[in-house]
């Protein structure tokens, strides 16, 4: 690719600009889409951690609905929308589980209450008494000095195959660039608004 930035570098540049401008509480929020075991798409917001080896890292419960769906079908999509810079990035790729050492690192960075929630809750399961569950979590926070990472908590590394960058324009003549990974290299196409 001549005169065009590689997509991972371009993502990092756009992300940093948004982080410098935004005042939103969770600037790392990204929409993760998976294919459900019922063949319906599912989308939810999660927290993007970082890029490692040109792959996008997310963490969470591996036995949650999203974790089960990723194990069943490793094809996923990420959608970033940044309000300050009015930019959108859509990514399609293949998800693989991160190693235990990396999962331990991310878990250690969580707050004590977040660790307690992750160790007690079965994400997405039905509950009949929310108050009892909250008391159980508060008790764990008060009693345990060090809450270990549960075996079902980890993360995924998403290796992108397609990345589309879109800059919104007031004229509605949006600038869209699509990068596709083929034969070991990124190819870019300018696509219509």
Automatic annotation (TrEMBL):
Domain Pyridoxine 5'-phosphate oxidase dimerisation C-terminal positions: 153-193
Coiled-coil ranges (or none): none
A GO biological-process term: pyridoxine biosynthetic process
Cofactor remark from the record: Binds 1 FMN per subunit.
Keyword Flavoprotein: yes
GO molecular function: FMN binding; pyridoxamine phosphate oxidase activity
Pfam families named in the record: PNP_phzG_C (PF10590), PNPOx_N (PF01243)
EC number(s) stated in the UniProt entry for this protein: 1.4.3.5
Keywords (A to Z) from UniProt: Flavoprotein, FMN, Oxidoreductase
Domain Pyridoxamine 5'-phosphate oxidase N-terminal: 26-135
Keyword Flavoprotein: yes
Database matches in Gene3D superfamilies: Electron Transport, Fmn-binding Protein, Chain A
Residues involved in FMN binding: 44-49, 65-66, 88, 176
Cofactor(s) required, per the database record: FMN
Leading EC class: oxidoreductase
Family: Belongs to the pyridoxamine 5'-phosphate oxidase family.
Protein name (database record): Pyridoxamine 5'-phosphate oxidase
Organism encoding this protein: Pontimicrobium aquaticum
Phylogenetic placement of the source organism: Bacteria, Pseudomonadati, Bacteroidota, Flavobacteriia, Flavobacteriales
């Amino acid at each position: 690719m001549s005169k065009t930035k590689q997509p991972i570098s371009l993502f990092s540049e756009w992300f940093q600009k948004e982080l410098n401008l935004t005042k939103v509480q969770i600037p790392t929020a990204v929409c993760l889409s998976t294919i459900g075991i019922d063949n319906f798409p599912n989308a939810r917001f999660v927290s993007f951690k970082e890029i490692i080896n040109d792959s996008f890292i997310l963490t969470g419960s591996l036995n949650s609905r999203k974790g089960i769906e990723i194990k069943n079908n490793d094809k996923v999509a990420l959608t970033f929308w940044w309000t300050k810079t009015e930019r959108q990035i859509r990514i399609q790729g293949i998800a693989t589980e991160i190693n235990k050492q990396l999962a331990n690192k991310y878990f250690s960075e969580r707050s004590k209450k977040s660790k307690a929630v992750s160790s007690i809750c079965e994400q997405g399961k039905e509950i009949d008494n929310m108050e009892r569950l909250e008391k159980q979590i508060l008790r764990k926070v008060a009693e345990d000095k060090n809450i270990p990472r549960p075996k079902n908590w980890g993360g995924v590394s998403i290796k992108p195959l397609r990345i589309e960058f879109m800059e919104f324009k007031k004229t509605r003549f949006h600038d869209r660039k699509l990068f596709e990974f083929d034969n070991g290299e990124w190819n870019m196409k300018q696509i219509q608004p």
